[in-house]
Every structure is written in structure tokens, then in C-alpha cells.
Amino acid sequence: EAQVTQNPRYLITVTGKKLTVTCSQNMNHEYMSWYRQDPGLGLRQIYYSMNVEVTDKGDVPEGYKVSRKEKRNFPLILESPSPNQTSLYFCASSILAGGLGNEQFFGPGTRLTVL
Amino acid sequence: AQSVAQPEDQVNVAEGNPLTVKCTYSVSGNPYLFWYVQYPNRGLQFLLKYITGDNLVKGSYGFEAEFNKSQTSFHLKKPSALVSDSALYFCAVRDSRAGGTSYGKLTFGQGTILTVHP
């Protein structure tokens, strides 16, 4: 089954404790992206990657890191989480053939709480 | 910088009536426009998109959207609403122009909660 998977689905942590949220897709997509969803603010793009070893900042990259060492994986790293990073996080991927007009496939989301 | 506005936080319609969820956008070049839907406790699902060509695009579950370049709008419509259409709807835009600082970015609106009453 074609899908985007995220782990963990739920995480409660404390301020300053480094964490990683994994994202993996099995569709051989070039483009991958991370978003956070907050009430009243919609989805905001954190980072995106157009291919292996290529990453770019989205609209809210502060406090986050990403890496793209393999095509299928795009982990999101919070080196020192803070309470304002409490949010619902989504990973997504899309094919790049033909350009950027292709729809994204979203993972199920990771609900993160930073105390 | 590109942006999307969904002017209505909530839209309420009766089942069987037509529905419209509004979206306006701003990009430097020509837009790629998307609508996604989020059901409770679920991820986002793609509904439809405008890339080029016919201004009226049709998508999943009977939804359609009309691209209006002069009004920079991409409103989502459905002729007859169902209770099962109740969900959170997001409009998104991407700049099709290669090489710009926003190339690759996808910008979402804040979302519109659609409630269809029986």
C-alpha cells in the first residue's frame, strides 16, 4: 500500500530534551515536506526537500532541523524543544515529475506536547 | 511572498443545498492551486487542483473549483452538500515560476470548517 508513515504518533516530552520524528514514504517521491498545524493558523511549512541531500526552509523553520540522506526518509529533529513547539505535525510527499503541480500525500500526523 | 486567505472560519449549509468555500491567493508568478480536506483525527486528503487550462476543475466526491485569475480566487463548490462533507477544508498555493525564492514552498490557508446539517 502506498503510504507516508510517521513515528511516533503521539509524544509528550519536556523542554530541552532532543527528539526526532521519523517520516518514511514508499512511493519513490522526490519531494518531501514537514508542516505543523495549529488552530486558527492552518498548516505552516517547516522544511521541504526536493531530493536527496537538498533541503530548504519553509515559513517556520526556527527550532527545527531536517536531513534527507535517503530518498524515502525525511526525519524532523527538535534539538531543544520548547512549549511553543507543541503542535500537530504532518509529513507529506509528492512526485516531482512534470514539476510542482502534483498533489501531496500526507502522513497520519504526530501530536507533540512539550511541557 | 506567497499567501492564501480563507475568509470564513466556518461555513454552515443544509444537506442538499449548494456549498461554497472561499479562497483567495497571492503569488508572484502563475499559481498552482490545491484544495485538501481533513476529516476529524485524520491526515489531509487531496481533493482537486488547478495547474493550467480550463478554469473549472473537478475533483473527488463531487467537488469542483473555479479559478479566477482577475479576482485571484479559487473557490471550492459542490452543487448538493452531504452531511458526510462536514470537515476542515484547506486551500493551498504554490508559485509555478522556477528559480524564485519561494520555489518549492507550499502555502496553506488557515482552513474553513464546513458543517452540513441534516
Class by alpha and beta content of chain A: mainly beta
Rg of chain A, alpha carbons: 13 Å
List the uncertain runs of chain A.
none
Approximate helicity band of chain A:
under 10%
Could you characterize what this model shows?
The complex is a heterodimer of chains A (115) and B (118). Chain A has 115 residues and is mostly beta strands. Chain A has strands spanning 4-7, 10-13, 19-25, 31-38, 42-51, 54-57, 65-66, 76-78, 87-94, 105-106, 110-114. Helices cover 0% and strands 50% of the residues of chain A. Chain A is globular. The termini of chain A are far apart. The mean pLDDT of chain A is 95. In chain B, the strands form three sheets. In chain B, strands 2, 5, 6, 10, 11 and 12 form a six-stranded mixed sheet that branches. Chain B has strands at 3-5, 10-14, 19-21, 24-26, 31-38, 44-50, 56-58, 64-68, 73-78, 87-95, 107-108, 112-117. The model of chain B has no long low-confidence stretch (mean pLDDT 93). Chain B is an all-beta fold and 118 residues long. Chain A binds chain B through residues 31, 33, 35, 40-45, 48, 50, 56, 58-59, 90, 92, 99-101, 103-109, and chain B through 6, 9, 32, 34, 36, 42-46, 49, 51, 90, 92, 94, 96, 103-111.
List keywords for this structure.
heterodimer, A: 115 residues, mainly beta, 7-stranded mixed β-sheet, 4-stranded antiparallel β-sheet, 11 strands, B: mainly beta, 51% strand, globular
What's the arrangement of secondary structure elements?
The complex is a heterodimer of chains A (115) and B (118).
Chain A: E1 4-7, E2 10-13, E3 19-25, E4 31-38, E5 42-51, E6 54-57, E7 65-66, E8 76-78, E9 87-94, E10 105-106, E11 110-114
Parallel strand pairs in A: 2-11
Antiparallel strand pairs in A: 1-3, 3-8, 4-5, 4-9, 5-6, 7-8, 9-10, 9-11
Chain B: E1 3-5, E2 10-14, E3 19-21, E4 24-26, E5 31-38, E6 44-50, E7 56-58, E8 64-68, E9 73-78, E10 87-95, E11 107-108, E12 112-117
Parallel strand pairs in B: 2-12
Antiparallel strand pairs in B: 1-4, 3-9, 5-6, 5-10, 7-8, 8-9, 10-11, 10-12
